[in-house]
Amino acid sequence: MRFFGLLTHIVKNRAIVAADGGANHLKDYYEKFGDHDGFIKLPKAVIGDLDSLLPETRSYFEKRGVPVLKDPDQYSTDFTKCLKFVTKYGHSWVDDDVEQLNTMVFGGLGGRADQAFAQLHQLHMASRDKSLACGDIYLYTEESIMFLLQKGSNLIVTPVGRNNLGENVGIIPLSAPATITTEGLEWDVKDWKTSFGTQVSTSNHIRNDTVRIITNEPVLFTVELARKPSANGTHPN
Description:
Layout: H1 2-10, E1 17-19, H2 22-33, E2 45-48, H3 55-63, E3 68-70, H4 78-89, E4 103-106, H5 113-126, E5 137-140, E6 144-149, E7 152-157, E8 165-173, E9 178-183, E10 192-194, E11 201-205, E12 210-215, E13 219-225
Parallel strand pairs: 1-2, 2-3, 4-5
Antiparallel strand pairs: 5-6, 6-13, 7-12, 8-11, 8-13, 9-10, 9-12
């Protein structure tokens, strides 16, 4: 339940799509805290090949009018299925003046290692595949946020402090070696080459309210969360 403390803090009044077995954990949260508390709403759908969805979870959501959609495609992950669903229907869930629909992903990086790597792979592929074009995608763990920075100059607002971000960041090359220049970190670099097998930037520290990353290839940016969920599933005040 610890992870859903973070979820309640972030997704109030936002739409949710549950990926297959993730719905089991969502049901557990609802049964403990209630599904009409105004923080975590019922999902728009439960999607996947449904091999991990428990019968009681399916019954729970179907009784509450939540569509349970089976996609048997074994060449895509449940995460990918959800991204395609959000891309297709997401703009109907928000106000007309919302120009870009962003996607926050919870719970995908704390379990099996192969599924975690699959999420990072899909994060990279989503930047190139129009069927997955559901705005910026942010992957959340209990302690960090990560997202993709595209080629060129990227300005990131980085308010460090209580209720905001921690100071620790990483810049990870995903698909190819990259050359990066940074501004606003404790250990800034200029035209610094990074790749797996040579050198990778981790445990650097934010030192400004904004950080600029210039890169010649897409890189993964990770930043620590200041607010960490407590053991009872809620955030400290």
